[in-house]
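Changelog-linked ticket: magnesium ion example.
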Amino acid sequence: MTPEDSGCAPAHPSTLEQFGWTEEHTKAFRNYPEQYLPGRISCRQKTVWDVLTLKGTVTTGISGALKKLGRFPAVGDFVVLLHQPESGSSAIVDILPRRTQFTRGAAGRDSTDQVIAANVDTVFIVTAAGQDLNARRVERYLAIAHASGARPVIIINKADLADDAQALADAILPVAAGVPIITLSAKSGEGMREIDPYLTPGSTIVLIGSSGVGKSTLMNRLLGNNVQDTFATREDDDHGRHTTTVRQLFVLPCGALMIDNPGLREVGMGTASGGMDETFPDILELAEGCRFSDCRHENEPGCAVKAAVERGEIAVARLENYHRLMREIAFEQDKKEIGLVRTERKRWKEIGKLQKETGKGRRP
Ligand SMILES: Nc1nc2c(ncn2[C@@H]2O[C@H](COP(=O)(O)OP(=O)(O)O)[C@@H](O)[C@H]2O)c(=O)[nH]1
Ligand SMILES: [Mg+2]
Ligand SMILES: [Zn+2]
């Protein structure tokens, strides 16, 4: 498969820094002999990865060892590549430690397989004027973005469709909790300069948001050509269109790296509760005044959060969403625990089988 076939744009950075490589990576890579190449994953399709290297984009698989360990590189990962052009063989043999990781909290036992993007600096939470603009959805995305370790920025696209673009931003302000809100139009270009400060060379930005909000349009404008197809369709409507279902990292002309997320229909909360405090700092602060230190702000007496809701200081819907997201996290955590128990049981069964077999072999 050529990069063109997979919809991946060929990109050939001339220094490692240009694809986000830092001092930390140099340290981690130091012990590899010279036949190993450093690289960054720009695209993954099941068992084939595109790796940006200084020698161009290499399309390859992972080593048996990584497979056995269940360590699958994600888009944005910095990897070590064993590359032998003479014999035509190559494989990704290691994944360097991740600075941040953005996970999809969907069902699935293999948690390493759920990483959507790695080593992201900034998450653009893209929403749009019209029906997508929903404070509750923004809260969910904020919690996920904060949990990833990256810095979120809220983008309100399609400002050209709104009579009053400022009113759109004002509607989101109560849930933004200090996160920047930028109103723009990817179509007309209006307001695009506002995102420049986040597009520094070597930094990595991931686009998340519902289908149809204009993520690919935004990316195309920044790329200056039509690399990403723009469709208002959902991923399961367009099986034939590979370009819309491939998650890719692009090197923008301005030097930043950007990951589009086609077909990311829904992002679950996963087990990461780490983003909740930063998303709901108002609730966190009020909770200090609750009578019980483990108050869940449901029906406990002396709940300062409930009192604030009654006084109209916090929207009822905001507290409800807080509860919904917390329940979702608890559910995922339970599921993960059950999964772990199951995996452990399976492992012991395998060991038992193995012992029986070797035992048989020893018998005279
Ligand atoms: N009016 C308007 N339409 C836009 C804007 N940005 C994107 N669109 C349209 O919204 C639709 C979905 O855009 P797309 O980039 O494919 O969304 P994605 O699913 O988030 O990647 C397309 O028809 C775009 O032309 C904008 O700023 N203004
Ligand atoms: Mg798209
Ligand atoms: Zn409380």
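Closing comment: Example verified and attached. Residues 1-11, 106-113, 231-244 have pLDDT under 50 and may be disordered. The two ends are 53 Å apart (CA to CA).
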